[in-house]
Design brief:
By secondary structure, this protein is an all-alpha fold. The chain contains 2 helices and no strands. Helix content is 59%, strand content 0%.
C-alpha cells in the first residue's frame, strides 16, 4: 500500500513539474534563435582559426 502511494505521489509531482515547465516556457522561453551575421572569411586563415572566431 505504501509502495502504491509512493509511486502515485511521485508521478503526480512529476506531472506538476512538467505542466509548470510548459507554462513557464510559454511565458519565458529558455532559448532564443540566434541571428548570426556571417562575416566573409579570408582564405588565408587556417581552418581552425576560422572555426573558433565566431
Amino acid at each position: 500500500m505504501l509502495d502504491l502511494f509512493g509511486i502515485m505521489f511521485s508521478s503526480v509531482m512529476m506531472l506538476m513539474v512538467i505542466i509548470r515547465a510548459v507554462q513557464l516556457d510559454r511565458a519565458q522561453p529558455w532559448f532564443q534563435k540566434v541571428n548570426r551575421k556571417e562575416a566573409p572569411v579570408s582564405s588565408e586563415k587556417q581552418v581552425w582559426q576560422r572555426q573558433t572566431s565566431l
